[in-house]
Structure formats: structure tokens, C-alpha cells
Amino acid sequence: MIDLHLHIDGSFRPQTIYELAKEMNISLPADSVEGLLPFIQVPEDCRSLEEYLERFTLPLQVIRTPAAVERVTYELLIDLAAQGLDQAELRFAPKSCAGTADQKEIVEAAIRGLNRGIQETGMKAGLILCAMRGNSFEDNMETLLLVKEYLGKGVIAFDIAGAEIVFKTHLYADLFAKARALGVPYTIHAGEGDGPESIKAALDFGAKRLGHGIRVYEDPELMKRVRDEKIVLEVCPISNLHTKVVDDMKDYPLRKLFDYGILVTINTDNMTMSNTNLKKEYEFIKKHYHFTDEEIKQMNETAYRASFIK
């Protein structure tokens, strides 16, 4: 199994969050790991993206040193291997984890954790470095240049994440023009918080993979373009349930996109926040959208082909 869309800062162990907070003398809202869960996991009836994003507050407080980044990257690979995965792409925003360190120190720490995890598990894995919508051009450019510097040395691609509806995708044309000029592979978060215009901008930038991309269903012409150009969607069903990508999950368009011939893959997004894993995602789409084991195998094979790890 392979996961193409997995955020490190949304997927590390609750026990580690608790331990790192204690080490850093960070005030906790509860005095046990069990008590922390409501503050780092969304309820099944999560009401909005805003409620979902609140669960990042504590994890982002404790992952702001190189040592913490190395530890959580390593532990995540151990956990994924135990779940039966043999390949994973782990993404994070080094600027958001920098604290008093610089981005380069954070990236090098993540690579150390990645290499330890690979050595112990035998998994194939790589890092996608995320720029952030709302960050300065200089900070995002620094992230991009670090992708270029460490490409093939643990880092596999570039991405941009964050408040898509506030900081529109088209604003980042210069950043992705530079990525193309540098020969850096990239995926782009588009079509989750914002709609078809965001996806169109990402495609115009040359993206061949989209983080989420699920709102392509709102534009029939765009659906045709995505299908015909063989764009791969990194779909995260349970996360989309929690962030209210559609008002009613009965209307979730995964089956429609798959049957239309769009290349969809199934991923977890944030394992801790959504209390999920890849097998749980598969069971979710089997139960609610009547996907067969053969169709899930087909989507998994699509993900292997689309992977930046070669």
C-alpha cells in the first residue's frame, strides 16, 4: 500500500505530542494522553474546516525543533510500516516547524528521521516540502530552493498548502514558474477549500498531481480536462468528511470521478487529526460508495505510478 498525501504534523503519535510538550514545558489542556485526544482529534461530527484546523495548534507547538522533527518523521515511518504500507510520501512545511532553527536545519532533521525509518522498515519513502499560502515570497522561495538542494537526497517534491480560499492559487504563479525552471517536481493543494478556479490555476502552472482536487466535479469541462490530461487526484475521503468539502457526504463525488475515468488515489491527509489510516479509508469508501477490492487495487496501482519516488 502507498499513501501519497500525508502531513507529518497531522499524523504523529498522541503519546509523542504529550511527551514533547512535557519536555518543552508547554502547558497542556489535559494531564494524560487520553485526555489530550479531544484537543488533537476532530469529532466525527466536525462542523467546519475551522474546527478541524484547531486540532493543529498543539502538534505545531511541539514540532518546532530539529530533534522533534527528526523523531516524529522516524516514528511515522515505523507506524506506517506496522500498518502494512511499503511506500509513503510525507509532507510538511519546514518554515512552520522552524522555531529558532532555520528551514535548512529542519529539512536536514526530517531527512535524518526519514533515513532511520527507511533503514529499519525497508519502506520506500520521501519528503515533500510545502510552501505555505500567506507566507512571504522569500520564505516560500527558500523552501523551494531547499527542495532543489536536497532533491534525490530524501526530498522528492514541492507543494503549497494552507488557506486556499483566502490566498488564491493564481497568486503563486511566479513561485511555480521558478519550480519549473529549476526542474523541481511538484503537486499543488487545489480544489479542497476553493473550487474549480483553483484547480485551473494549478493545471496552468503545469501540475500533474493535485492535493485533494475533489471539487473538480463542480465544472464538467474541467472534469474532462483533468481526465484527458491524466491528472492524478490525491483524494482524502475521511479528512474531506471532517472539513466539509461537500455539505452532505452522500454527495461526495469520488464514485462519479472514478467512473468518469479520472485518476483518483486514496490517502489519509492527517492520520491523528482524523483518527484514520489507509485501511480505514479503504473500508470507508467500500461502505459508503460501494468500491470493490479490485477498484481499490486499481487506485493503489495508480498511486504507485504517480509517486514521485522512483
From TrEMBL:
Record InterPro entries: A_deaminase_dom, Ado/ade_deaminase, Metal_Hydrolase
Its EC number(s): 3.5.4.4
GO molecular function: adenosine deaminase activity; metal ion binding
Cofactor(s) this protein requires: Zn(2+)
Domain of life of the organism encoding this protein: Bacteria
Domain Adenosine deaminase: 3-309
GO process annotations (BP): adenosine catabolic process; hypoxanthine salvage; inosine biosynthetic process
Key words of the record: Hydrolase, Metal-binding, Zinc
GO cellular component term of the entry, any: cytosol
Family: Belongs to the metallo-dependent hydrolases superfamily. Adenosine and AMP deaminases family.
Protein name (database record): adenosine deaminase
